[in-house]
Design brief:
Helix content: 40-55%
Distance between the termini: 51 Å
Strand content: 5-15%
Order of helices and strands: HHHHHEHEEHHEEHHEHEHEHHHHHHHHHH
Shape: globular
Radius of gyration: 29 Å
Oligomer: single chain
């Protein structure tokens, strides 16, 4: 079975990344309108930056003070970028060849440090190589900010255009292996950590590869990892060549890797680690076949989802840049009036630069801007030496420009965000076989009067959009329907869920196929995920609804979980209550409460 799986793996790897041909065609037909809406939204973002923000940045010298260069149309139009980092001979180039399923003379692989340059692999109609000096000047390439790192770096930078369908969706950046010796680092001719930070700010995913036989983190590797601090949410760890060790060694290697990462990554959460052997050769240890095959599929699925989130990431990057620009303008607006009626203006500017810390504190108090949003004192003083602050526009003009920028951030960007399609592909049951598809359940959207309970209610059908937890018509939703309201009776607090509502939830509960009157987390996952809540919140919600702590939900606990989900969707809840309010807990379950 393992041999058959490996034989099919190479053939179906493209399908695993892109989907089968019929699936792709159907997806294109279904999402053609969504694609047009995304393009329209991106055009609006480009116009907003090009005609509103960029002229102000040039007028107030923002590009000279900010580390990032001017955003171009090529940046907004570029495919999602995946950055590969790691020490030499850990399999970065082999991983790229594994994805592309093809070779190129510029993608050399060997046991020695073969990749001595940054290689950006993009899609092109014909295979060609573009030197770094020309690539950073090309208007259709998103690398126009690299010229500030000097000719030595550009001589070690190359853009490789290959004809590959996968490259239509994502672009890849291969990096030279991180070195261990201080002498070798000095001979590079450029700062590896600064260039890594430049790529990290613009990429959508960062894959840090480790060899199962080389887990040590050198000084330069530590500096590279520290340069990713602002982008830890993009980082994924790949433990490569893991098929060359046995299970006992793999357990120890994984523990040693997590310990090493904990020394250089200052994050309360552990990073996602993919374990496998990412190259075209068969696995050496057969017992890992199924496990590593699943790890490969999960990694490919992660890369496959990048284009969906690329637009949001670029909008987020633009908003972050605009916020820094607003801080920059507030600083200049505060300093500009102090040059009125002053004869020796250069002397006054030097005096302001010496007391810049006190000026920043005053601006922070007046505008409520956090102190961490201000630029570094030394960096601001250095850039201001070549500027003449008294030549800036009048304060009234600066206030108007700040108001324009604030209005665009508070109204223009949210309007563009509403143009984006609501991506619920991950919750679509259309791709699930009928035998495994979960019943359709839509949360309530209208208000209707509750049905009066009868002594012997008839079985209710599964909920398919009916109003399960809506308050009665004319009710404000406060009182017995408020899980956090004070109970009016101190003796016996009734359950907040009415009998008619409970019967509808029981119908949905029965349709999911409970075993011994219980549903597992896997059985309720599809229903819960349709709510649109993040997985961490759903996990907490499941634990809170499991009142008897048997890791399963009966019909009453399932109803409590749906009630909490509905509270999040209607805005009544902002976080999962712990412990649950007494009126939310069914009467028969209150014996489990502390």
């Amino acid at each position: 079975q393992v041999l058959q799986m490996e034989g099919k793996e190479r053939k179906s790897k493209f399908d695993a990344f892109m989907g089968s041909q019929g699936e792709v065609t159907e997806e294109m037909k279904k999402n053609e309108d969504d694609h047009e809406r995304t393009l329209t939204a991106m055009d609006k973002v480009k116009q907003f930056y090009k005609y509103t923000v960029l002229p102000l940045e040039k007028q107030y010298w923002f590009s000279d003070f900010h580390t990032e260069t001017v955003l171009t149309d090529a940046y907004f139009d570029a495919a999602p970028l995946v950055l590969l980092l790691g020490q030499y001979s850990v399999g970065k180039t082999s991983f790229i060849r594994y994805l592309l399923e093809r070779d190129h003379m510029n993608l050399r692989v060997g046991p020695e440090p073969t990749t001595d340059r940054f290689v950006a692999v993009l899609h092109g109609q014909n295979d060609r190589s573009i030197p770094g000096n020309a690539a950073c000047l090309a208007a259709d390439k998103p690398f126009n900010g690299l010229e500030k790192y000097g000719v030595d770096f550009l001589n070690k930078f190359e853009v490789l255009e290959l004809r590959s369908t996968i490259l239509e969706k994502i672009s890849l950046v291969d990096t030279p292996g991180v070195l261990a010796g201080a002498k070798q680092v000095r001979n590079r001719g450029y700062d590896m950590s600064k260039i890594t930070e430049w790529f990290a700010d613009r990429c959508d995913r960062i894959l840090v590869l480790f060899d199962a036989h080389k887990l040590d983190i050198s000084d330069e590797m530590k500096q590279v990892m520290l340069s990713l601090k602002k982008n830890h949410n993009k980082v994924r760890i790949v433990l490569n060549k893991a098929d060359s060790i046995n299970s006992k060694q793999l357990m120890r290697v994984y523990g040693a890797l997590m310990w090493s990462l904990g020394r250089v990554i200052d994050s309360p959460e552990s990073l996602r680690v993919y374990i496998g052997s990412f190259w075209e050769k068969p696995m050496q240890k057969r017992q890992f076949g199924q496990f590593m095959s699943e790890e490969k599929k999960e990694l490919l699925e992660d890369l496959r989802n990048l284009p969906r989130n690329a637009t949001l990431r670029k909008i987020n990057h633009l908003v972050r840049r605009c916020r820094y620009f607003r801080v920059h303008m507030e600083i200049l607006k505060h300093l500009r009036p102090q040059f009125h009626y002053v004869m020796f203006k250069e002397k006054k500017q030097n005096e302001l630069m010496r007391g810049l810390l006190n000026e920043f504190k005053t601006i922070s108090r007046q505008t409520n801007i956090p102190s961490k949003d201000f630029p570094g004192l030394g960096h601001f003083r250095e850039k201001m030496q070549s500027k003449q602050m008294w030549r800036l526009p009048a304060v009234e003009k600066m206030e108007q420009d700040i108001n324009i920028l604030t209005q665009m951030l508070s109204k223009g960007i949210p309007k563009i965000m509403r143009m984006l399609p609501n991506d619920n592909k991950a919750f679509d049951d259309s791709k699930t076989p009928p035998s495994r598809a979960s019943p359709k359940f839509e949360f309530p959207t209208k208000v209707s009067a509750p049905v009066q309970p009868k002594p012997q209610p008839k079985p209710q059908p599964a909920a398919t959009g009916a109003d399960v937890f809506d308050p009665p018509a004319g009710s404000t939703g406060v009182g017995v329907f408020d899980p956090f309201g004070e109970p009016e009776e101190k003796k016996v607090v009734p359950w907040i869920v009415k009998e008619a509502m409970f019967n509808k939830c029981k119908g949905l509960f029965a349709s999911l196929g409970p075993v011994d009157g219980k549903l597992t987390g896997a059985q309720v996952k599809d229903i819960f995920v349709k709510s649109g809540l993040d997985m961490q919140t759903l996990k907490k919600l499941f634990v809170a609804a499991d009142i008897d702590k048997d890791r399963k939900l009966d019909s009453q606990e399932f109803t409590v979980a749906l009630y909490l989900i509905d509270g999040f969707r209607r805005g009544r809840l902002k976080e999962v209550p712990n412990p649950l309010p007494v009126e939310v807990v069914p009467l028969s379950k209150r014996k489990f409460m502390k």
